[in-house]
């Protein structure tokens, strides 16, 4: 409750604040509708994190970037390189669809994406779309979609870049890159690395937390080396081709009696072609492969392997019927393959999806209608739909309303894991409604959204059959408020979320709060430049949450305060410093798993 009242009081003093102060230039997004739009045109609730935002925040991981972002709960299992999971708008961590340069990423066995192994130095920007998008993307997009774009060369000529830094917990990282471009072509290559001794990940036991027979107070380190390449060319006839590649490999240590070390790899590569057979017809073809590999060890003894490969192909056609109507029709193919030391009874499956969307502008009204049919080799057919409506009250104020249905296919672990899986599982299903109002006055931007999501057929462990089953239901309600403005040279940047994630399943847990969701979250960023100096701060307050479905193990609310500063040494050289968790707050986002105490980090960066 303390966090709730603190957030409310601060909001009353500064109205509502927004996370995107650097985006007054109306950035172009593509994830919300699979077509190019400005953020103001979109009928979805969208956050864009640009490369400038990443560098301004001095973020060193995706966890840094996502913590406190509107609508996102983050829980981490003990520091850098440890399991990091996102819950968007109160849904499950495997209810978020993740794309990297248009290629679907993630593990087919666990159903989640290893965000902890995607380095921020390889990222150009991130688009976060809140709310269901299965009617465009198929399975997983119940809570929303996150698309990560790797770095892209811009401007004329060839430009090198370099950064190196170090700090607490014997942490070092660095990157080197080369990018270039011209009137028709562009390229970027970046290599980065990080190494840290870390800290003791877990204080749990064999029955809770890290599942180790005895507490292991050693440091649990992490190492990662990653590289990416992206290049494209636009021909005189309008044909545009592009290729992209990202590979991240490393080793992480943690506490456990069964496994306590993992060698991991994440990889995405693909290509795209875009051309217009006629002025009104635009064709996009995207194909690629993503890999998620993990070899697990107990000490130096190899224990298990879980490698998954996902191949995807998309053919999309955008038809400009006239200046007020756009029709999109397309098809997706996906094939998942599992290679494991565990004897999965089925180790591959395919999915075909066809989708259509109509975008219309009628006077002050905007409409989005979408429909999709998926035919999956494992669970059969599913049809999902979506509808959105926007109304411009004035040039600066807009109303929006939307509805969407979505589904999540069971994972290979849930279906076929030896001694655990249930091959009769059905997909999880949801229905969501959202209403909002947003404004973009001359002094900034603001928005207010309310939503409700009902999820049926949620998969949970059924003790009566000793296997997962479709036995749970949930009702999630939320309110999100954001605003960005500038006061006396200070840029203010924040958001406030109220969440009510209720378990609607029958039995003893009915009416309980779904695990690991903070019911209140408030984040405020403040930045200002003084000549060659830039200073900033981030204030994050999250309410209490429960770690278990029975609501017997409570995680306390916490307040976290970070400081950052930057010195512009010359046109191309910068020195950056950051103090995280200034007041050394002790907190947990998952029970028994430690989080960083007060720590600092400094970076030297060269970037033309």
TrEMBL record:
It is a multi-pass membrane protein. Residues 179-582 form the TonB-dependent receptor-like beta-barrel domain. It is found in: Cell outer membrane. One of its GO terms (biological process) is monoatomic ion transport. Residues 40-145 form the TonB-dependent receptor plug domain. GO terms for molecular function: ABC-type vitamin B12 transporter activity; porin activity. Its main location: membrane. Keywords: Cell outer membrane, Ion transport, Membrane, Porin, Receptor, Signal, TonB box, Transmembrane, Transmembrane beta strand, Transport. One of its GO terms (cellular component) is pore complex. Belongs to the TonB-dependent receptor family. This is Ligand-gated channel protein. It comes from Nitrosomonas communis.
